[in-house]
Amino acid sequence: MYIIAIAWMYVVILMAATEKSVTAGLLTFIFYGLLPCALLLWLLGVKHRRHHQNKQSMDEMTHQQDGTDPQRDE
After folding, report:
1. C-alpha angle 36/13/15, rounded to 5°?
2. Where is this region: Disordered (predicted)?
3. From the CB of residue 16, how many other CB atoms can be counted at a distance below 10 Å?
């Protein structure tokens, strides 16, 4: 996932470097590079964050005590 983002940013930097003005280069870099890559990484990271959150909630449920103590009845 990251190799695609790195390769795309490389292409966008080369595109921005060939623009006629600095303003056009910056806008090319922002609108063709930063915003799409940020959106892509955020969308692809949602699955990882959701998986991590579900794993934490399952760990909390397994470590939660249910109030029964087998030694207490003796």
Report:
1. 95
2. 53-74
3. 18
Question: What's the count of helices (H) and strands (E) in the chain, helices before strands?
Answer: 3, 0
DSSP summary character for residue 19: S
Measured distance CA(25)–CA(6) in Å, rounded: 18
CB 3 within 8 A of CB 38: no
Q: Distance between CA 54 and CA 71 in Å, rounded?
A: 32
Give the amino acid at 17. A
At residue 44, the pLDDT reads 83
Q: Which of 40, 18, 38 is nearest to 28 (CA)?
A: 18
User: By C-alpha distance, which of 26, 29, 24, 23 is closest to 11?
Assistant: 29
With a cut of 50, which residues of the chain have pLDDT below it? none
Question: What per-residue confidence (pLDDT) applies to 61?
Answer: 63
